[in-house]
Every structure is written in C-alpha cells, then in structure tokens.
Specification:
single chain; 501 residues; alpha/beta; Chitobiase, domain 2; TIM Barrel; 2 domains; six-stranded mixed beta sheet; 18 helices; 36% helix; globular
C-alpha cells in the first residue's frame, strides 16, 4: 500500500516538473509597433515565462527622462525598465509584450520564451496621440468602449476623444437636464443605407449614466489614456433641442434626427438661457472628466436661423458682431472663458477660426491641413486630424462592393502612414502642433466588429506617425504588422486584411 502511494506521488511530482518545463519558443527578431526611436541588439538571450513576465522585470526611476520616455533593457539575467513616470513604464511594458510572441501567451503550455537581448531607448514624437469614437450616430456599450481603449493602449495612444452629443443622439446623463437622455438619447428610426428619404422606423438609442462615464474614465486612466469629451456647441444640436425646444431660435418643432447630415436647427445664442444650459452641462461634464481639454465642437453650424432670429440679431448688435460668423466667435470666446475660469482649455474644430479665436483656443484641423497651418501661423495650438489622412470611416479599398458600406472616400493604410503633420510649416511654427488623431465617425458603422475593422490596421499607422514620426518606412511597417496582426488575432480584434494580401 505504501509503495503504491509513494509511486503515485512520484508520478505526480514528475508530471508537475515536466509540465512546468512546458514548450519553449525562441524569438529571433524585434518587431514593435509603433517603431521605437532606437533599438540596439546585444549578445545573449533572456528566458522568460510569458505567463509570469513581471517576475523578470526590475523598475528604475530616472527623472532626466521625458514624461513618457523609457529605456527597456533585456539582458540574460533579467529585464530592466527605466522611466521618470508610471506612463513611461507602461509604454515600456507594451513594447515588451510585443517582443513575446502572441501564440506563446495564448498557448498556456509554453513556459519559456527566449528573447533577444537588447536596449530600447524610446520616447514619443508628440504629446497628443489621439483616437476618436462617435457614439452618437451609432451607440456602443461600456464594454465595447473599454475594448476600444484596450486597442488604443496597445498602440500607445494617450487621448480618447469621446464624441457624446449630436443631432442623432445625446449620449451622456446630465442631472440638471434629464430630458437630454429621456428624449434626446432616442430617435424614432435610422436612415436605411444611403436612402435619404427612408428610415427603418425602429426606435434606436442609448446613453451612459454618470457612473458609467466614471467607470470608462477610470478604465482609461489605468491605461494612461486621458478621455477628452466633446459637447457640440453651437451646432449639431437637434437631440438637445428635441429635449428642450426653448433653446432654439424657433422654440418648437424639433426631433432627434433619424438622418445623417448637417441641419439648420442650431442653438440660439440670442437667449441667455442657452448659455445657462451650456454652462450647467459643462459643469457636470467637468466633474466627470478630469481632462485639461474639453472639446466644444464648433463645426458645421449653419447660420440661416440666426439671420432670421430677432434675438440673435439683437445679440450681434450688442456685442458688435459684423456677421453671424462673429456671433459664433462670441459664443466660442464666452464658453472658453467659462471653462478657463474652471482651469480647463477648449478644443474646437477648425471652423471656429472663421470668426476669429483667442490665442489660447486649440484647433482640431479636419478639413485638410489648411486650418491647422493657419492656426499654427497665428500661434494657436493645433491637433492635426485631416480627413484626407485621418478619417478612418473612409473606404480602405477601391473595391467598395466587397467592403462594408462606408461614408465614401478612399483612405488605404499606406496613405494614412504617409501623413506628415509638419508639412507646410516652418520650424518655428511646428512647435504649435500638439499631435495627431484618427477619427471614427459611425454613420455607417453599426456594430463594434465593424468599428474594429475600420480602425485596424490604420490606427497603427497613425500611432507610428504620432510616436515615431522621423525614420518611418512603410515597407518596414508592413513587415512589422505581420507580427502585430498575431496580437489582433489573439485578442479577437477584427481588422482589415488588405496590407497582408
């Protein structure tokens, strides 16, 4: 009996020992996206357990490094990560994770991976590396937004532009104005395809409670991503006006739009209660989002209702506005002053330049780069997101019959990758370019699976522009993306395959 028990125990121990050895993988190359600034290969290999990577890491602080910079040293005896901040250490970890083959993490029988010894010295080219998601045209759950944030973090993106209000839906709970989500979060139907006179007549909508917003912001913060909320002022207002019609020039007859496009019904800046609304909403928004920047929209605001509105005309006369563009400028300056008084800064789409802006307004250039160039020449800070390079809702192939329905355009990964945010600027003016952002508008993107398809791999191209900038090479990028796609597969992320074919 004792021999039998002893034999069973020995068999178990031998099995555990053999099992702990598991399979081994050898990593021959370093293929990281975005490309690090400097990689120096060295002799030797470092053996790590892909399931216990942290066991091999030693962290060091060096305050001489930049805020997001890091040094990653892989040596035979272990791994050292040096940074001046936790953000730098986090980005080093993202690079290290990409050195470990995705299949090694997925296969729990792999207990040993041999990494090439190296030193990576790295830092981002731009402080603002952004990605945008429109949750108004089509709504996405909290878990889907978190998945989006995971994708951003893996690409060292550090700003999430959260587009929360539109003509087609208001997506954030505001306690002082409950009808914004009781009424404004829901539309009676959704436009069918590109049929501008047909809807599906199916009630559609959704919104995030304030607790859900806090959860998203915290989740992002843990990944060193700042969430930049966008509240549209003064256009794209139908969802708000359907909820509180007194805020419009006409004062009645509004509904949440089931159609895409630009609509003449906008907020009425001739009414003082409109400013009370904006300030109250923004106060609650500031309580939820610690971001230095609040995006106030400012794009695509038709002026014809203001032209006919006695209150708007009265406001223009009182404020010395020569035209309706200057009336919008008055709105922008007043809202900016309110946010500045609370320690925040504004971002606006490039239309806010048309009536004049303060020197402290940050411009998001989307109608090409001209707006960004003009702003930088004036000394305003700029985020470059031109539709010609950064609109990820555009088609990725000319063979549109075999692609998901999209808004139009043609923006392959190679063109995204070719973007130079400094083009057309002097060295002096380049200092005003804060960074680069990719935008995902969702008029024709109904599911999160399609969001991922439109996002990847083009976001990787934007990430490399924002992080690496100089020394980029598209052929080398495509080669590294063959490795990167294995992580897409391992995480279950959908992606377009064009550059791999």
């Amino acid at each position: 009996m004792k021999k039998t028990v002893y034999g069973v125990l020995m068999a178990m121990i031998v099995g555990m020992v053999l099992g702990s050895c598991g399979k081994k993988m050898v990593c021959e190359t370093i293929e990281i996206v975005p490309k690090p600034q400097q990689v120096t290969l060295q002799e030797g290999r470092c053996k790590v357990n892909p399931l216990r990577l942290e066991d091999k890491i030693r962290y060091k602080a060096d305050q001489s490094l930049g805020e997001e910079a890091y040094v990653l040293e892989v040596a035979p005896k272990g791994i050292t990560i040096t940074s001046s901040t936790p953000a730098g250490a986090f980005y080093a970890l993202q690079s290290l994770k990409q050195m470990v083959p995705a299949e090694a993490v997925a296969d729990r029988n792999v207990r040993c991976v041999e990494l090439p010894c190296c030193t990576i010295e790295d830092a981002p080219a731009f402080a603002y590396r952004g990605a945008h998601l429109d949750v108004c045209r089509h709504f996405f759950s909290v878990n889907e937004v978190k998945e989006y944030l995971d994708i951003l973090a893996f690409n060292k993106i550090n700003r999430f532009h959260f587009h929360l209000t539109e003509d087609q839906g208001w997506r954030i709970e505001i306690k002082a104005y409950p009808k914004l989500t009781e009424v404004g979060a829901w539309r009676k139907g959704t436009m069918v395809g590109k049929n501008w006179n047909q809807t599906d007549s199916v009630r559609y909508g959704g919104f995030y409670t304030q607790d859900e917003i806090r959860d998203i912001v915290q989740y992002a913060s843990e990944r060193f991503i700042t969430v930049v909320p966008e509240i549209e002022i003064p256009g794209h207002a139908l969802a708000a006006l359907a909820s509180y019609p007194e805020l419009g020039c006409r004062g009645e007859g509004y509904e949440v739009s089931p159609f895409w496009g630009v609509f003449p019904e906008v907020f009425c800046p001739g009414k003082e209660e409109t400013f009370t609304f904006w300030e109250t909403v923004l106060t609650e928004v500031m309580d939820l989002f610690p971001s230095e920047y609040i995006h106030i929209g400012g794009d695509e605001c038709p002026k014809q209702e203001w032209e006919k509105c006695p209150l708007c005309q009265k406001r223009m006369k009182e404020e010395g506005c020569a035209n309706e563009f200057e009336l919008q400028s008055y709105v922008t300056r007043r809202v900016e002053a309110f946010l500045n008084a609370h320690g925040r800064q504004i971002i606006g789409w490039d239309e806010i330049l048309e009536g004049g802006v303060t020197p402290t307004a940050t411009i998001m250039s989307w109608r090409g780069t001209d707006g960004g160039i003009a702003a930088a020449q004036k000394g305003n800070k700029v985020i470059m997101t031109p539709n010609s390079y950064c609109y990820l809702d555009y088609y990725q192939s000319r063979d549109t019959e075999h692609e998901p329905l999209a808004i139009g355009g043609y923006l392959p990964t190679e063109k995204v990758y070719s973007f130079n945010p400094y083009a057309g600027l002097t060295e002096e003016q380049q200092q005003y370019i804060l960074g680069v952002q990719g935008n995902v508008w969702t008029e024709y993107i109904q599911t999160f699976d399609q969001v991922e398809y439109m996002l990847l791999p083009r976001l990787c191209a934007i990430a490399e522009t924002a992080w690496t900038l100089n020394g980029r090479d598209y052929d080398d990028f495509v080669k590294r993306m063959q490795h990167m796609r294995t992580y897409f597969d391992a995480n279950g992320w959908n992606y377009a395959k064009h550059i791999f074919e």
